[in-house]
Amino acid sequence: MKAPEIAADEAQRLAQLRALNIMNTPAEERFDRLTRLARRLFDVPIALVSLLEAEHQWFKSTQGFDAVGSSRDISLCAHTILQEEIMIVEDAAQDARFYDNPLVTGEPHIRFYAGCPLRAPGGAKVGTLCIIGQTPRQFDAEDQATLRDLAAMAEAELVAFQAATCDELTQITNRRGFMTLGQMVLNECRMKKRPASLTFLDLDRFKQINDTLGHREGDRALMDFADAMKVVFKHSDLFARLGGDEFVVLFNGLQQQQSEALLAQFARYLQQQAISLNRRYHLQFSAGVVEFDAAHPQSLEQLLHASDQRMYLSKKQKRAVV
Q: Domains in the chain, please, with CATH?
């Protein structure tokens, strides 16, 4: 078996994939209708929308196959994203790359495969729309054109998903995306008895920036703040702009004390950032951290309310000192 190579632009590809905020989200009809249609049009038992993370592939939509994903090193789709055009495997059992692949020798017993790369809005190939058969077959030019058309529709849905869950100004997750993805993270933490912490962040004296330097500079400050979040927080953490100068971070796997240490690191980074960018102000924030208890789970709404209250007390104490 030949394991797929890693492309030179892998870091950029992963960044664009994660910016979609789509990994591990629930099944959606807009993707499922495309895989259903692909299965009917090509008369194959399996059709998938597959997205490739660093070490695994995950299926956003699957028809005819119960798995939610597989290891990347055995993924045929991981080979597909290395090329510009559709990858066609007419008989995997006779292909030197795949004849002993576990997906060929075992479930789902792949013999025929055709996959078209899916590109993120930034141009990186993040996954595929693919069809799978359990008997060898050919795939002519007309078939390929049809698969490309379906893949273009899948790419349009990726763009639509990102637009619905992304803050237009800062290009991080918006409130809608956070409420959807955040509750999924908490559900996973509850099932796996893993810790999590949520912090509500509010910029200090943001109105002063707007009033003295103008709203354009205020927008730049918000973008600087979001850019710093992208640098300091891990991709496994979920951070978002709720609106205005309010932000939130859900630390996946961290207890409150660990989260507070990371917030202190974030504050130091903001100071360095202001110097390197030659800004006329230093961004500071008030924060309230609450810990998620998997044994006595609270909803995301409850955690947000509690962290907002703690943030407000922190801001009030700062004003009293001043």
A: 10-165 (3.30.450.40), 175-321 (3.30.70.270)
